[in-house]
């Protein structure tokens, strides 16, 4: 699917103030969570002066770089398919609205189709999770991309079965990245 046109400019008037956007968020996000659970993003970067006390009190893991401070996903505030600090969430979280959400809010895609796309994405993620577990890399509180990279880099088992699973894993990750790029990411987002 092509990226939906006329996405709201990041940081401009919040789409939540628009009823169509609010409704799309209510309809789609609770059944998804892919932008908070470590599938779409490995980290969430804070602004230079940004401090989120609510995150400090959680078991948040931080990473510093010349670009600033970021916290690791899966986000500790993501609980029961909801953001536990929604009213205090970082600017980056406020600004992000995935392509599917934008398409539904702007009437370019039906809600049913968007929900089906989310389910298919979750199904692909579940397959990758199953292979990671088979290869000895079960959930470790890291993003899916980092876990896949670590698993493929530490490929010590050269049995036929393990080699076959790793090949399947690589293909599945490639397909997932294409799916995330075409349906979810905005122009400046990328799989890291
Ligand atoms: S990826 Fe999109 S639909 Fe899913 S929770 Fe995030 S904004 Fe909502
Ligand atoms: S702070 Fe809330 S919106 Fe931001 S990544 Fe965490 S759960 Fe998602």
Short note summarizing the structure:
By secondary structure, this protein is mainly alpha-helical. The chain has seven helices and five strands, in the order αβαββββααααα.
**What multimeric state do the chains show?**
single chain
Count of domain modules: 1
Query: Overall pLDDT, averaged?
Result: 87
Q: What order do the strands of the largest sheet run in, or round the barrel if closed?
A: 1-3-2
Ligands (ions, cofactors included)? iron/sulfur cluster
Instruction: Kindly state the number of beta strands.
Output: 5
Indicate the overall shape: globular
Along the chain, the helix and strand elements come as: HEHEEEEHHHHH
Count of DSSP helices? 7
Description:
The protein is mainly α. The chain has one domain. It has 7 helices and 5 strands; from the N terminus they run H-E-H-E-E-E-E-H-H-H-H-H. The protein has a 3-stranded antiparallel sheet with strand order 1-3-2, with no helix packed on it. Helix 1 packs across helix 4 and helix 5 packs antiparallel against helix 7. The radius of gyration is 17 Å and the shape is globular. The N terminus is likely disordered. The structure holds iron/sulfur cluster (2 copies). One iron/sulfur cluster binds next to loops. The site of one iron/sulfur cluster (SF4) has 10 residues, from loops.
Q: What secondary-structure arrangement, pairings included, does this model have?
A:
Elements: H1 19-28, E1 43-45, H2 53-56, E2 62-65, E3 68-72, E4 78-79, E5 82-83, H3 91-95, H4 99-105, H5 111-134, H6 144-153, H7 160-183
Antiparallel strand pairs: 1-3, 2-3, 4-5
């Amino acid at each position: 699917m092509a990226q939906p046109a006329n996405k709201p400019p990041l940081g401009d008037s919040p789409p939540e103030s628009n009823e169509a956007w609010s409704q799309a968020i209510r309809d789609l996000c609770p059944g998804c969570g892919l932008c908070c659970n470590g599938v779409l993003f490995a980290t969430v970067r804070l602004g230079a002066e940004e401090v989120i006390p609510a995150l400090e009190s959680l078991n948040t893991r931080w990473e510093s770089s010349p670009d600033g401070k970021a916290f690791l996903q899966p986000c500790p505030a993501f609980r029961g398919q909801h953001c536990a600090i929604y009213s205090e969430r970082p600017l980056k979280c406020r600004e992000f609205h995935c392509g599917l959400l934008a398409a539904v809010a702007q009437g370019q895609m039906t809600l049913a189709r968007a929900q089906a796309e989310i389910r298919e994405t979750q199904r692909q993620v579940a397959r990758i999770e199953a292979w990671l577990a088979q290869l000895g890399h079960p959930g470790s509180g890291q993003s899916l991309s980092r876990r896949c990279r670590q698993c493929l880099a530490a490929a010590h088992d050269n049995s036929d079965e393990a080699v076959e699973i790793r090949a399947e894993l690589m293909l599945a990750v490639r397909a997932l990245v294409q799916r995330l790029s075409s349906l979810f990411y905005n122009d400046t987002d990328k799989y890291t």
